[in-house]
Write a structure and sequence with these properties.
The complex is a heterodimer. By secondary structure, chain A is mainly α. In chain A, 76% of the residues lie in helices and 0% in strands. Chain A is elongated and about 50 Å long. By secondary structure, chain B is α+β, with helices and mostly antiparallel strands. Chain B folds into 2 domains: 111 residues, Beta Polymerase, domain 2 (2-Layer Sandwich), CATH 3.30.460; 55 residues, no CATH class. Helix content of chain B is 45%, strand content 20%. In chain B, the strands form 2 sheets. Chain B has a 5-stranded mixed sheet, sandwiched between helices. In chain B, strand 8 and strand 9 form a beta hairpin. In chain B, helix 6 runs antiparallel to helix 7 and helix 6 runs parallel beside helix 8. The two termini of chain B are 22 Å apart. Classes of the chains: A mainly alpha, B alpha+beta. The interface between A and B is medium-sized, with 24 and 25 residues.
Chain lengths: 51, 199
């Protein structure tokens, strides 16, 4: 089986970009949390956690 | 988010998820046995809405003698079981007093579980002493002060830990004691991480 060439620097950059995007998501999520009722956010959180 | 952030307590009402329910159930057993404890690590972020789950809930409990622990063990065993060992003496002597955590799960399930340990580092003792009261749906629980929880998560340093720290900081940066937080940043030598990920 022929396997792809792996550019570790490229993958490292993708990993860093992904992490940066997740941090940006947290900022947006916290902003949403602040303006959202406890009933709404906690019921959405429960859906994720109680899966 | 409707939350009351007072000097001596935080008040929060939410729909309880399975982790919240296990926390309330387990800490009620610690309360019944008059054991001082503090909830630390990932659950603190989850309590305040972080959009992730966890396989464990970390609790530091005050150091107790074998007799007190055996009474607690009996209470715990009515609803939970210990994953590490079923032997009370081994649990105390080979785990707790050797600074290893004991893991408890609800009977007939493996996860999530409660990780119970004694304080070891001076920071653990400080966290236990300075624990912050939270009224969760009018039930009292105690969490690590956010001023140490945020820097310590950064100190641990995995992507998940950094995300937890960012979540708490962005949510509470206008409520917490920033001078105290900065002191922990300095002591844990994570000032550059703080500037990089939380500013």
């Amino acid at each position: 089986m022929k396997t792809p060439n792996i550019d570790l620097e490229e993958l490292k950059k993708l990993k860093e970009d992904n992490f940066k995007e997740r941090l940006e998501f947290i900022d947006k999520y916290v902003e949403w949390l602040k303006k959202t009722s406890n009933k709404k956010w906690s019921s959405e959180q429960k859906r994720i956690i109680d899966l | 988010m409707e939350i009351r952030f007072l000097k001596d307590r935080i008040e929060l009402e939410k729909e309880l998820n399975i982790l919240d329910k296990i926390v309330l159930e387990f800490v009620s057993l610690l309360d019944k046995s008059n054991i001082k404890y503090v909830l630390v690590s990932g659950y603190v972020s989850i309590l305040f809405g972080r959009s992730r789950t966890s396989e464990d809930i970390d609790i530091i409990a005050e150091i107790m003698d074998f007799n007190k622990f055996s009474r607690l063990w009996e209470q715990i065993y009515e609803k939970f079981e210990c994953i590490n060992t079923e032997d009370l003496k081994e649990a105390y002597e080979d785990y707790l007093t050797k600074n290893h955590a004991l893991r408890f799960s609800k009977k007939d399930s493996f996860i999530p579980n409660v990780e119970l340990k004694f304080p070891k580092a001076e920071l653990d003792f400080w966290t236990l002493k300075e624990r912050k009261k939270v009224l969760l749906n009018n039930t009292e629980i105690f969490i690590s002060p956010l001023e140490v929880q945020i820097p310590f998560k950064l100190f641990l340093g995995s992507e998940k830990d950094i995300e937890d720290a960012r979540h708490l900081f962005k949510l509470f940066k206008n409520k917490i004691d920033l001078q105290l937080l900065n002191e922990f940043n300095r002591k844990l030598k994570i000032e550059s991480l703080f500037d990089r990920y939380l500013r």
